[in-house]
Specification:
The chain has 6 helices and 7 strands, in the order H-E-E-H-H-H-E-E-H-E-E-E-H. The strands form 2 sheets. It has a 5-stranded antiparallel sheet with strand order 4-3-7-6-5. The protein has a two-stranded antiparallel sheet with strand order 1-2. The longest helix has about 40 residues. The protein starts with 6 loop residues before the first helix and ends with a helix. The protein has 2 domains: about 100 residues; about 140 residues, 2-Layer Sandwich (Beta-Lactamase), CATH 3.30.450.40. About 55% of the residues lie in helices and about 15% in strands. A hairpin with a 2-residue loop joins strand 1 and strand 2.
Length: about 260
Protein backbone atom coordinates (compact mmCIF):
# COMPACT_ATOMS: atom_id res chain seq x y z
CA UNK A 1 0.00 0.00 0.00
CA UNK A 2 1.52 3.36 -0.97
CA UNK A 3 2.38 5.98 1.64
CA UNK A 4 -0.32 8.62 2.25
CA UNK A 5 -0.23 11.70 0.05
CA UNK A 6 -1.86 15.05 0.66
CA UNK A 7 -4.73 16.31 -1.52
CA UNK A 8 -2.46 18.91 -3.17
CA UNK A 9 -0.13 16.22 -4.47
CA UNK A 10 -3.07 14.19 -5.72
CA UNK A 11 -4.51 17.23 -7.45
CA UNK A 12 -1.18 17.92 -9.17
CA UNK A 13 -0.98 14.31 -10.34
CA UNK A 14 -4.50 14.56 -11.72
CA UNK A 15 -3.54 17.71 -13.60
CA UNK A 16 -0.65 15.82 -15.17
CA UNK A 17 -2.93 13.13 -16.60
CA UNK A 18 -6.04 15.21 -17.17
CA UNK A 19 -6.67 16.33 -20.77
CA UNK A 20 -6.26 19.99 -21.66
CA UNK A 21 -9.36 22.08 -20.83
CA UNK A 22 -11.85 22.91 -23.55
CA UNK A 23 -13.44 26.32 -23.74
CA UNK A 24 -17.00 27.21 -24.61
CA UNK A 25 -17.81 30.89 -25.14
CA UNK A 26 -14.70 31.85 -23.18
CA UNK A 27 -15.49 29.73 -20.11
CA UNK A 28 -13.36 26.71 -19.19
CA UNK A 29 -15.44 23.54 -19.35
CA UNK A 30 -12.87 21.56 -17.35
CA UNK A 31 -13.84 21.97 -13.67
CA UNK A 32 -10.31 21.24 -12.48
CA UNK A 33 -8.95 24.06 -14.66
CA UNK A 34 -11.55 26.38 -13.16
CA UNK A 35 -10.55 25.36 -9.63
CA UNK A 36 -6.87 25.87 -10.41
CA UNK A 37 -7.66 29.32 -11.79
CA UNK A 38 -9.64 30.15 -8.64
CA UNK A 39 -6.70 29.11 -6.48
CA UNK A 40 -4.37 31.31 -8.52
CA UNK A 41 -6.73 34.27 -8.10
CA UNK A 42 -6.75 33.68 -4.35
CA UNK A 43 -2.96 33.70 -4.26
CA UNK A 44 -2.88 36.93 -6.29
CA UNK A 45 -5.37 38.52 -3.90
CA UNK A 46 -3.30 37.47 -0.89
CA UNK A 47 -0.21 39.01 -2.46
CA UNK A 48 -2.14 42.24 -2.99
CA UNK A 49 -3.28 42.17 0.66
CA UNK A 50 0.31 41.75 1.86
CA UNK A 51 1.39 44.65 -0.31
CA UNK A 52 -1.42 46.81 1.08
CA UNK A 53 -0.47 45.77 4.60
CA UNK A 54 3.10 46.90 4.02
CA UNK A 55 1.79 50.21 2.69
CA UNK A 56 -0.32 50.63 5.83
CA UNK A 57 2.73 50.07 8.02
CA UNK A 58 4.74 52.63 6.08
CA UNK A 59 1.96 55.21 6.22
CA UNK A 60 1.49 54.60 9.94
CA UNK A 61 5.18 55.25 10.53
CA UNK A 62 4.87 58.53 8.63
CA UNK A 63 1.75 59.66 10.49
CA UNK A 64 2.51 59.15 14.15
CA UNK A 65 1.38 62.67 15.00
CA UNK A 66 -1.84 62.62 12.91
CA UNK A 67 -4.59 60.81 14.92
CA UNK A 68 -7.25 61.06 12.19
CA UNK A 69 -5.09 59.35 9.61
CA UNK A 70 -4.13 56.79 12.23
CA UNK A 71 -7.81 55.89 12.71
CA UNK A 72 -8.33 55.52 8.97
CA UNK A 73 -5.27 53.30 8.72
CA UNK A 74 -6.50 51.15 11.61
CA UNK A 75 -9.85 50.71 9.85
CA UNK A 76 -8.13 49.70 6.61
CA UNK A 77 -5.99 47.21 8.49
CA UNK A 78 -9.04 45.64 10.16
CA UNK A 79 -10.72 45.30 6.77
CA UNK A 80 -7.56 43.73 5.39
CA UNK A 81 -7.52 41.16 8.19
CA UNK A 82 -11.17 40.29 7.60
CA UNK A 83 -10.56 39.89 3.88
CA UNK A 84 -7.53 37.71 4.57
CA UNK A 85 -9.64 35.41 6.77
CA UNK A 86 -12.33 35.15 4.11
CA UNK A 87 -9.76 34.38 1.41
CA UNK A 88 -8.30 31.65 3.61
CA UNK A 89 -11.77 30.10 3.95
CA UNK A 90 -12.32 30.28 0.19
CA UNK A 91 -8.94 28.67 -0.46
CA UNK A 92 -9.85 25.85 1.93
CA UNK A 93 -13.12 25.27 0.07
CA UNK A 94 -11.31 25.29 -3.29
CA UNK A 95 -8.92 22.70 -1.90
CA UNK A 96 -11.85 20.53 -0.81
CA UNK A 97 -13.44 20.82 -4.26
CA UNK A 98 -10.16 19.80 -5.87
CA UNK A 99 -9.99 16.79 -3.57
CA UNK A 100 -13.52 15.74 -4.55
CA UNK A 101 -12.70 16.24 -8.23
CA UNK A 102 -9.57 14.10 -7.98
CA UNK A 103 -11.50 11.34 -6.18
CA UNK A 104 -14.21 11.15 -8.86
CA UNK A 105 -11.65 11.44 -11.68
CA UNK A 106 -9.63 8.52 -10.33
CA UNK A 107 -12.67 6.30 -9.77
CA UNK A 108 -13.99 6.70 -13.31
CA UNK A 109 -10.60 6.64 -15.07
CA UNK A 110 -10.67 2.85 -15.55
CA UNK A 111 -13.12 0.04 -16.36
CA UNK A 112 -11.02 -2.73 -14.82
CA UNK A 113 -12.68 -4.00 -11.59
CA UNK A 114 -9.32 -4.64 -9.92
CA UNK A 115 -8.12 -1.12 -10.73
CA UNK A 116 -11.35 0.39 -9.37
CA UNK A 117 -10.90 -1.54 -6.12
CA UNK A 118 -7.27 -0.40 -5.86
CA UNK A 119 -8.38 3.20 -6.45
CA UNK A 120 -10.92 2.95 -3.63
CA UNK A 121 -8.12 1.76 -1.36
CA UNK A 122 -5.89 4.68 -2.43
CA UNK A 123 -8.65 7.18 -1.71
CA UNK A 124 -9.21 5.60 1.71
CA UNK A 125 -5.52 5.94 2.55
CA UNK A 126 -4.59 9.25 0.93
CA UNK A 127 -7.78 11.28 1.35
CA UNK A 128 -9.50 9.78 4.38
CA UNK A 129 -6.35 8.86 6.30
CA UNK A 130 -7.42 5.23 6.82
CA UNK A 131 -4.73 2.93 8.20
CA UNK A 132 -6.87 -0.21 8.68
CA UNK A 133 -9.86 -0.92 6.50
CA UNK A 134 -11.63 -3.55 4.42
CA UNK A 135 -13.62 -3.50 1.19
CA UNK A 136 -16.69 -5.77 1.18
CA UNK A 137 -18.42 -6.50 -2.13
CA UNK A 138 -21.40 -8.66 -3.04
CA UNK A 139 -20.52 -11.54 -5.35
CA UNK A 140 -22.58 -11.37 -8.54
CA UNK A 141 -23.15 -15.12 -8.80
CA UNK A 142 -23.77 -16.56 -5.32
CA UNK A 143 -24.78 -13.25 -3.65
CA UNK A 144 -22.32 -13.73 -0.78
CA UNK A 145 -20.34 -10.82 0.64
CA UNK A 146 -16.67 -11.13 -0.23
CA UNK A 147 -13.81 -9.36 1.53
CA UNK A 148 -12.00 -8.16 -1.59
CA UNK A 149 -9.41 -6.00 0.15
CA UNK A 150 -8.11 -5.70 3.71
CA UNK A 151 -5.37 -3.39 4.93
CA UNK A 152 -3.90 -4.05 8.37
CA UNK A 153 -4.96 -6.33 11.19
CA UNK A 154 -8.55 -5.79 12.32
CA UNK A 155 -9.73 -6.99 15.72
CA UNK A 156 -12.88 -8.70 14.44
CA UNK A 157 -13.98 -12.34 13.87
CA UNK A 158 -14.26 -11.73 10.11
CA UNK A 159 -10.76 -10.27 9.76
CA UNK A 160 -8.52 -12.14 7.32
CA UNK A 161 -11.33 -14.31 5.94
CA UNK A 162 -12.52 -14.48 2.35
CA UNK A 163 -16.18 -13.73 3.15
CA UNK A 164 -18.13 -11.67 5.65
CA UNK A 165 -20.83 -13.77 7.28
CA UNK A 166 -22.41 -11.00 9.36
CA UNK A 167 -22.33 -10.30 13.08
CA UNK A 168 -20.99 -6.74 13.25
CA UNK A 169 -23.93 -4.46 14.18
CA UNK A 170 -22.55 -1.38 12.40
CA UNK A 171 -21.75 -3.21 9.15
CA UNK A 172 -25.02 -5.17 9.16
CA UNK A 173 -27.10 -2.02 9.65
CA UNK A 174 -25.25 -0.20 6.89
CA UNK A 175 -25.70 -3.05 4.43
CA UNK A 176 -29.38 -3.33 5.33
CA UNK A 177 -30.45 0.29 4.73
CA UNK A 178 -27.50 1.75 2.81
CA UNK A 179 -26.94 4.60 5.29
CA UNK A 180 -23.53 5.90 6.37
CA UNK A 181 -22.73 4.69 9.90
CA UNK A 182 -20.22 6.08 12.41
CA UNK A 183 -18.79 4.17 15.34
CA UNK A 184 -17.46 2.74 17.44
CA UNK A 185 -20.47 1.03 18.99
CA UNK A 186 -20.78 -1.94 21.31
CA UNK A 187 -19.45 -5.20 19.82
CA UNK A 188 -17.95 -3.39 16.83
CA UNK A 189 -14.42 -1.98 16.27
CA UNK A 190 -15.59 -0.06 13.18
CA UNK A 191 -15.09 3.73 13.04
CA UNK A 192 -17.18 4.26 9.92
CA UNK A 193 -18.97 2.08 7.39
CA UNK A 194 -19.45 3.64 3.95
CA UNK A 195 -22.20 2.00 1.89
CA UNK A 196 -21.39 1.54 -1.80
CA UNK A 197 -24.82 2.19 -3.23
CA UNK A 198 -26.10 2.79 -6.77
CA UNK A 199 -29.77 3.17 -7.76
CA UNK A 200 -31.01 1.99 -4.34
CA UNK A 201 -28.86 -1.15 -4.56
CA UNK A 202 -26.02 -1.63 -2.06
CA UNK A 203 -23.17 -3.44 -3.82
CA UNK A 204 -20.88 -3.47 -0.80
CA UNK A 205 -19.26 -1.33 1.87
CA UNK A 206 -15.96 0.27 2.80
CA UNK A 207 -15.23 -0.47 6.47
CA UNK A 208 -12.65 1.70 8.28
CA UNK A 209 -11.47 0.61 11.71
CA UNK A 210 -8.42 2.84 12.34
CA UNK A 211 -7.04 6.15 11.09
CA UNK A 212 -3.44 7.28 10.89
CA UNK A 213 -2.23 9.13 13.97
CA UNK A 214 -1.78 12.39 12.04
CA UNK A 215 -5.42 12.21 10.95
CA UNK A 216 -6.75 11.82 14.46
CA UNK A 217 -10.45 11.51 13.72
CA UNK A 218 -12.99 12.04 10.98
CA UNK A 219 -14.40 15.56 10.83
CA UNK A 220 -17.80 16.79 9.71
CA UNK A 221 -16.33 17.98 6.41
CA UNK A 222 -15.19 14.42 5.70
CA UNK A 223 -18.84 13.37 5.40
CA UNK A 224 -19.02 15.01 1.97
CA UNK A 225 -16.09 12.94 0.75
CA UNK A 226 -17.52 9.78 2.34
CA UNK A 227 -20.90 10.29 0.67
CA UNK A 228 -19.24 11.00 -2.67
CA UNK A 229 -16.96 7.98 -2.33
CA UNK A 230 -19.91 5.70 -1.58
CA UNK A 231 -21.91 6.86 -4.61
CA UNK A 232 -19.12 7.13 -7.18
CA UNK A 233 -17.26 4.00 -6.04
CA UNK A 234 -20.47 1.98 -6.40
CA UNK A 235 -21.09 3.49 -9.85
CA UNK A 236 -17.52 2.79 -10.97
CA UNK A 237 -17.68 -0.80 -9.67
CA UNK A 238 -21.01 -1.40 -11.38
CA UNK A 239 -19.73 -0.01 -14.70
CA UNK A 240 -16.53 -2.05 -14.50
CA UNK A 241 -18.49 -5.25 -13.80
CA UNK A 242 -20.82 -4.63 -16.76
CA UNK A 243 -17.81 -3.98 -18.98
CA UNK A 244 -16.03 -7.11 -17.74
CA UNK A 245 -19.11 -9.26 -18.42
CA UNK A 246 -19.48 -7.79 -21.91
CA UNK A 247 -15.79 -8.38 -22.60
CA UNK A 248 -16.08 -12.03 -21.51
CA UNK A 249 -19.13 -12.59 -23.71
CA UNK A 250 -17.35 -10.97 -26.64
CA UNK A 251 -14.33 -13.22 -26.20
CA UNK A 252 -16.60 -16.27 -26.00
CA UNK A 253 -18.45 -15.22 -29.15
CA UNK A 254 -15.18 -14.61 -30.99
CA UNK A 255 -13.99 -18.06 -29.94
CA UNK A 256 -17.19 -19.69 -31.28
CA UNK A 257 -16.89 -17.79 -34.56
CA UNK A 258 -13.29 -18.94 -34.93
CA UNK A 259 -14.33 -22.55 -34.29
CA UNK A 260 -17.08 -22.32 -36.92
CA UNK A 261 -14.65 -20.85 -39.45
CA UNK A 262 -12.11 -23.59 -38.77
CA UNK A 263 -14.84 -26.23 -39.13
Amino acid sequence: MPAPKDSKGLAESAVAVSPAPHYTRGIASDPLATLMRARQLIHDAQAAIEEASQSVVEQRAASVEIPERELRLAKVENEREELSVRLSEVEHQVGRLMTLYVATYQLHATLDPADVQATIAEIAVNMLGAERFALLLHDEEDKTLEIRLQEGEIAAPWSGKSHYQGGDPLIDACLLDGILRFGPVENSPVLVTVPLRVQDVTVGALVITKLFDHKGKLHEEDRELLDLLGAHAASALFASRVYARAARKLRTLEGLINLVRKG
